[in-house]
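Predict structure. Chain length: 475.
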Amino acid sequence: MQMTGVEPVEVQVDLEGAVQRLSKAVQFPTISNQDRSDFDEQAFKDYHQFIVDSYPLVHKTLKREVVGDPRPFSLLYTWEGKDPSLPPAIFMAHQDVVPIAEDSRDQWLVEPFSGAIKDGYIWGRGVLDDKNQIHAILEAAEMKLKEGFQPSRTIMFVFGHDEEVGGPEGAKVAADIIEQRGYDKIAFVLDESAPLTPGIFPGIRDNTALIGIAQKGYVSLELAIHAVGGHSSMPPEESNIVALAKAVTKVEEAQFPFKIHDAVRYQVRFMGPELPEAQQPMYQAVAYGNNDTMTELEQAFIEAMATNPVTRAMLRTTTAVTMFNAGVKDNVLPPAATAVVNFRPMPGDTPEVIIAHVKNVINDERITVRDISASTPATNVADPHGKGYQLLEKTIRQTWGNDLIVSPFFVIGGTDSKHFQSRPFAQDVYTITGIQLESTTEFEGFHGVNERILVEEYGRSIGFFYTLMDNLEAL
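Prediction complete.
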């Protein structure tokens, strides 16, 4: 299933200047806090001005819009193509970053928002997730414009400002705007996901580029109880905290069933031949199985995948209790208690299905259930045998060579592109972070400490997007 014989493409990049620009970009603390009232507007405004100043040809040629509701801080660029009849392409990335946990600051080897260039790396919060992708796209576009390039099809850039909290203010609004402008079809969408990483998939040591072809949904439910509080010296038979704890326990114990769906089958078609030979019959059964039946070999596959938290999450709607709040004093019975349970739905498990499941499992009228998230269902599945996927694999191999495995995969998290991929007009959405990591150790920088990327690899990332813009001409 692997493309072979792709000739490498060398792209000359102003690496020193590009690195300095990315370093500066990291210094703007464009944080998305869970509490949306805690929002640093000035950090985003300053970052926007820096982008305008850094890429003069982009801002002379492309139409730039600042969009979002209720806060307009997402960026939508439109690069008009020579042929308006061609469906457009969209490149995505996000401006916002996750906060720095205070108890982790002493584990950072550099100041998190310093943008330090040290030991051959660019360091800092957002350098991997996801400002590297914003700036690689803009660097490539600036280079192409300097050469007088105009794409045949219109290309749009969507840089959201609230991806880390689901994208309801930014990317969703951008998707609404683009859809309302009458585009019947979006030909190709590329957003962030997993970087190229050796050993990223269990059982395969080789360097691997995983191209996301579908994403799980997102639902967060608040479970709450509001009843009589009182003095701790006169407790009731069951306190509000205990009642809620029982409800949460019931939800956690009532896990959704495992199932195999098309995105996983596609992934196994591509990755199965690279896995141990003794297990080939099992992988073949999964790769070409039927979603309406379950064979013994497919059941064996589920049992094997269930031993790993990453692969287990690919096979069912996950349930995670993430927040629990109650009480203000040690001798006061709180009149209310709340908990939040986060679900990442599989195809078919809509928000409505999940809410009904939770209410049925709890079976307690005292507990209210409320959707508090920008809930989205699991997305459509992009075609891994289509021209868009093949174009992307070719570009990956032109940039990083043929000595790697390229495979579709089912994204267990979620990106801003889900707001496009869940709609009929944008079926072919692919996700990959176009940069090479040395090992899974660097992957831990996502939302963790010591986030960093190699300077040399950032240059290749710019070359990747430069080459991709050329290759889109043949789509």
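Summary: The chain has a mean pLDDT of 94.
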